[in-house]
Amino acid sequence: MFKKLAIAGMLVGSLAVSAAASAANTWQFSYVGFLDEENWIFAQDYTISGSFTGNDGNNDGVIELGEITQFVLNGTDYLACASGSPFNYCGTDRFRYELGGALDFSAGTAMSDPEGYHGGGYVVRAGIEEYSYRNTPYSHTRSGAYLWTEDTKFSIRSMSSGGVTPAVPEPGTWVMILTGLALVGGVARRRKSEPLQPCQR
């Protein structure tokens, strides 16, 4: 009886932890302080910010591009902005967030005329640069470039439960809690089923 209850408790604990880890969540992030490439000065208040929604579907501690449903950067959702036109591009090329650690992504836009003579776009590569560009048959210009530096500050927070990351017990803790409850229930049942013994004097 005890063994069955303990196994059931372990299974319930495992399912609860798996459900908590795979629940969709939204994170907000920001980078503050960049090197202004054009003026070659450190713009300490310049900010790149955004949010993303997704879950760690395979429970490997990393959220990949295929595990997010929204990626907003400076007000544009780079997952929902695809136009379907061969001459206009808007999207996210890569995305990776290690839970509680580093965020890496590359996103942007690009457009050109049908002949490919004129075009331009916008690119953000986390940890490297943000810039706009224009192409003509005779030139390639880059503008509004900001570069990441060692002084760029990164912050991220989970928006679940009103902005506070919920405290989800570790798998081992779930197993201990549920096994303990199962054992207590088993003891209570066993005592209930045993006949009362007369007091010995």
Overview of this structure, please?
- This protein has one domain.
- The chain contains three helices and eleven strands, in the order H-E-E-E-E-E-E-E-E-E-E-E-H-H.
- Strands 1, 2, 3, 4, 5, 6, 7, 8, 9, 10 and 11 form an eleven-stranded antiparallel beta sheet that branches.
- The chain starts with a helix and ends in an 8-residue tail after the last helix.
- It has helices spanning 2-22, 160-163, 171-193; strands spanning 25-36, 41-54, 62-64, 68-73, 76-77, 88-98, 103-112, 119-125, 129-136, 139-147, 153-158.
- Mean pLDDT is 79; it is low at 1-21 and 162-179.
- The radius of gyration is 27 Å and the shape is flat.
- Helix 1 (2-22) runs antiparallel to helix 3 (171-193).
- Residues 167-192 form the Ice-binding protein C-terminal domain.
- It comes from Pseudoduganella chitinolytica.
Overall body shape: flat
Number of domain units = 1
Please provide the ordered H/E string of secondary-structure elements: HEEEEEEEEEEEHH
Task: Provide the gyration radius in Å.
Answer: 27 Å
Sheet bearing the most strands, described? 11 strands, antiparallel
**End-to-end CA span:** 33 Å
Helix tally equals 3
Strand content: 35-45%
Q: Helicity, in percent? A: 10-25%
In round numbers, the mean pLDDT is 79
**Computed structural class:** alpha+beta
β-strand number: 11
List segments where confidence is low: pLDDT < 50 over at least 5 consecutive residues: 1-21, 162-179
Summarize the structure.
This protein is α+β, with helices and mostly antiparallel strands and 201 residues long. The protein is built from 3 helices and 11 strands, in the order αβββββββββββαα.
